Amino acid sequence: MPTAIKVEGLSKKYFIGQQSEPRQQTIRGALSQMIANVMAKRSIIGQTEFWALKDIDLEVKEGERIAIIGKNGSGKSTLLKIVSRITQPTAGIVTLNGSIASLLEVGTGFHPELTGRENIYLYGAIHGMSRAEVKAKYAEIVEFSEIGDFLDTPVKRYSSGMQVRLAFSVAAHLEPDILIIDEVLAVGDFNFRKKCMEKMNDVSRQGRTLFLVSHQMDAVQQYCDRVVVLANGIKVFDGETEKGIAYYLGRSGGQRIVDASAIPRVQNLSGAVVIEEVEMLGNENMVYRAGEPIKIKLRLKAKDKKMEFFFKLVVMSADEKPIGIAVAPDPLSIEPGEDRRISVVFNPGEFTPGRYTMGFMLSRELLRTKNMKEIHDYIHNVISFEIKADEKNPGMVWNQNFGSVRLRDLVVS
Amino acid sequence: MFRRIKNKISDLQHGKRVVIAANRTEKQYLKDLWSYRELFIFLSWRDIIVRYKQTVFGVLWSVLRPLLTMLVFTLIFGKFARMPSNGVPYPILVFTGLLPWLYFTGAFQESSASLLANQNLISKIYFPRIIIPISSVFVPLIDFIISLLILFCVMGFYHVIPARHILLLPFFLLMVFFAAIGLGLFTSAMNVKYRDFRYIVPIVIQFGLYLSPVGFSSVIVPQQWRLLYCLNPMVGIIEGFRWCIVGRQNRLDPVSLLMSIAIIIILTVFGVWYFRRTEKGFADVI
């Protein structure tokens, strides 16, 4: 397979202030700084540098579908901007083979005063499509967008959903060799989103290379065969999608045993009892059938006095939205200096298939927590796990679009 | 030896370059421009549509502005100051100067502000950035055409017949065009980095109006100052417009014309050079 994107030793440096407060740059400021520099006989005023990306190597084969994931500020957007030629790297080389289209934001390039029809042509031109190409695909674009009646209405009168539909419809017909997408799948209503996803599948079936940045793990899982995880501008993982997602979601990095003391905490926790270690029992890949209990073992430590506390388990979805909390109703106790080991059984019976993460909380009260001081310790997104559809019930395909939890059965009479 | 140095230089350059596609590099900027050639038209077309859409005053203003300026200048320079007009009705003398001047100021203002006006495009999509300021120079052409039609009406009113040289008008229009591009490229790029630079543009335009022979004929400038005066490229352009349209005593001075051309070339080359140099960092600072 020939290479579509080759990234070698890519680094990008920003000066702090360059990105966050650009508006403060004025000639007056520059002149006064120049004078200050001359007076102080120095050439560079104490600017702090910040490496958004550091020495990234990456090779993407033609037709490969790769996702870049990472927390905010990990450098994903910078990488995307460099690969799509919007900004220049400080060091390193990117080689792209083939035509390229990037969608870093849906609707960039639309002009609110122009009509839908006019905007289709403009949007196409901005993304490198010729007039003839747009014309040839015009009917298809209009049909895909489902806004036929409003084509001669200025886009400023469109609802935001309509704008997104129009933008994605043009974008979906760009047909580049390499398609770079940043989080655009997160838009539109359910049906349109589904349509877009089908279109994306077509794109990859035709052998195009897909370069995606997303926070939505279900989209990553569905469309990508490779995942790169970035953290603080460094590539920390490159490999299979499943493992990459597990690595990113769980701080465990796919491990069953997590050294919890190394996980950063939020401020103002009491710290009277802390979690030292978390271990998942039994299941190697942390994939569970719906209804199968998850067994976890934790090691806790008290600081200096005997404590009574409550244990809670917090579940979040793959895109870090809270799903729910499970509590142990009876308080636990711990002696100072004791290596307290607890075993927990959690039954995610009502969860729809998908990926989740769990975190743990130790608190003074069972439910009423007034301030952070009443929480002894809290670590979130510690371990990720996956719920598989129940094989005994194959007719039922569960879908996260209806939420992550199956509610209690109805009583119908 | 020489080759080794050359290789080294190209290595260094590549260290900061994004190599695009099999044999295309950033060096082939022109090729990129060519593949995005339709965007020039689309961006100008967009700005023109937006400008005249839903505006009654948009067109009315294009008519009133040159007419009112012509009246005021004719009153002040022609009637009160009694400046010479080379046997041409004073309103026509003024209007032939206004024609390139208004186009120049319009184009210069549009292109200076163009990059900031398209911030969202610059930070989200790649295309050769130079397309933005250049395409915006086309927008005031509509006003120029409207003004030209008004001029013909005024000429008809005074029974003045256009000179044969009018066929050369496109050449002089091209000169204004490049003067606006050269300056516009520089100021638009400066605007991205230094937000207070935009306050300089109106000042340049305001002083330029009185430093250029818009309301009067350049013959009033004393001979010993003439060379210095011609450093302003608008002098050669306005003289050219007058020569093209009314001919007669409005001779074309080869010195001012050549100086004008030379300065416009310098401005354009400098503008393109400066723009290309700073263009790479636009997305980071805008």
> What's the end-to-end separation of chain A, in Å?
61 Å
Secondary structure tally, helices of chain A: 8
Count of the domains of chain A: 2
The tally of strands of chain A reads: 19
CATH class bucket of the largest domain in chain A: Alpha Beta
Structural class of chain B: mainly alpha
CATH topology of the largest domain in chain A: Rossmann fold
> Which protein chains are joined by the largest interface, and how many residues does each one contribute?
A-B, 46 and 38 residues
- Mind describing the biggest β-sheet of chain A? 6 strands, mixed
Task: Please describe what this structure looks like.
The complex is a heterodimer of chains A (413) and B (286). Chain A is an alpha/beta fold. Helices cover 23% and strands 33% of the residues of chain A. Chain A contains eight helices and 19 strands. In chain A, strands 5-6-7-3-8-9 form a six-stranded mixed beta sheet, with helices on both faces. In chain A, helix 6 (190-205) links the parallel strand 6 and strand 7 (209-213). Chain A is globular, with a radius of gyration of 26 Å. By secondary structure, chain B is mainly alpha-helical. Chain B has 14 helices and one strand, in the order H-E-H-H-H-H-H-H-H-H-H-H-H-H-H. Chain B folds into two domains: 1-35, no CATH class; 37-285, no CATH class. Chain B has helices at residues 2-15, 29-35, 37-52, 56-80, 90-117, 119-124, 131-136, 141-157, 169-193, 200-211, 226-229, 233-245, 254-279, 282-285, and one strand at residues 19-20. Classes of the chains: A alpha/beta (413), B mainly alpha (286). The interface between A and B is large, with 46 and 38 residues.
